[in-house]
């Protein structure tokens, strides 16, 4: 796949990807979008979600693209136009992310239902490709113990990486967030099965970069630095939004970091959840 964007249309090797256009748009972006929001569809195929966005019965939702489990991409809204994917949302000082972000829907069932025969989706179909995890904001069923989440196939993950890299070549994309970042009480997508730390590294970093391997804490309310990788470990310090850190290790979605002071000198070392770290 060789993705590029021409006049707001995604092309693969100079050929437009499949288009299932939705009329649910808010017109042209007021300013070029700087944020990408990742969602899961909580459904079956990408085509079924794209067809819903295009349906006359759907009057209030859309996304720019839907990405299927095999990596196939369907475009629903021109990248130069506002899509209705975020709903009521806040990120930093931005209220209402629709007018500031590009929405990517990934075909995935999200949280699954447990039973005697394993894990199944909302349609009662057995799902074997499962990640056992706890959502950092609490599971949709209110539990705080590991449950099954549908895993994201590597082909799907790589297609999403390639797409956002193509977007960055045209738009000033500086941040990648999940729907669960901008609407944490209402939403759980893309959920713990989506490796956001790895995704940000793949999209925002590059081997041609030269400089320190530092990161920045991105959490408006601050982020707990803990003594170990997990919320059951003691809080060492509350790190303010914008704190610079030096990653030195990893354990799943948790990063071991050294906190850098105002002069860039190392201070405390501990663990933070990687979802809240922007790696330079």
UniProtKB/TrEMBL annotation:
GO molecular function list: N-acetylmuramoyl-L-alanine amidase activity
Record key words, sorted: Cell wall biogenesis/degradation, Hydrolase
InterPro entries according to UniProt: Amidase/PGRP_sf (IPR036505), Amidase_domain (IPR002502), NAMLAA_amidase_2 (IPR051206), SH3-like_bac-type (IPR003646)
Protein name (Swiss-Prot/TrEMBL): N-acetylmuramoyl-L-alanine amidase
Residue span(s) of domain SH3b: 212-280
Catalytic activity: Hydrolyzes the link between N-acetylmuramoyl residues and L-amino acid residues in certain cell-wall glycopeptides
EC number of this enzyme: 3.5.1.28
Database matches in PROSITE patterns: SH3B
Organism, scientific name: Novosphingobium taihuense
């Amino acid at each position: 796949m060789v993705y590029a964007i021409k006049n707001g249309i995604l092309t693969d090797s100079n050929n437009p990807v499949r288009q299932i256009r939705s009329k649910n748009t808010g017109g042209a972006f007021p300013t070029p979008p700087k944020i990408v929001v990742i969602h899961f569809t909580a459904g079956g195929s990408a085509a079924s979600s794209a067809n819903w966005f295009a349906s006359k019965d759907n009057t209030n939702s859309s996304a720019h693209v839907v990405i299927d489990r095999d990596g196939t991409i369907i475009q629903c809204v021109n990248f130069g136009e506002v899509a209705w994917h975020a709903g009521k949302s806040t990120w930093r000082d931005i209220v209402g992310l629709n007018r500031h972000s590009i929405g990517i829907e990934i075909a995935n069932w999200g949280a699954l239902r447990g039973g005697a025969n394993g894990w199944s989706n909302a349609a009662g179909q057995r799902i074997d490709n499962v990640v056992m995890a706890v959502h950092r904001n609490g599971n949709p069923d209110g539990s705080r113990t590991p449950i099954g989440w549908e895993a994201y196939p590597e082909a799907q993950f790589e297609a999403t990486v390639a797409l956002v890299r193509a977007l960055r070549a045209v738009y000033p994309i500086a941040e990648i967030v999940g729907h669960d970042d901008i609407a944490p009480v209402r939403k759980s997508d893309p959920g713990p099965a989506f490796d956001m730390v790895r995704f940000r590294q793949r999209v925002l970093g590059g081997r041609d970069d030269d400089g320190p391997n530092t990161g920045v804490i991105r959490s408006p309310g601050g982020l707990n630095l803990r003594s170990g990788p997990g919320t059951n470990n003691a809080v060492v310090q509350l790190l303010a939004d914008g704190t610079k850190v030096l990653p030195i290790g990893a354990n799943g979605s948790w990063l071991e970091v050294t906190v850098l002071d105002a002069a860039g000198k190392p201070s405390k070392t501990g663990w933070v959840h990687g979802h809240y770290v922007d790696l330079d």
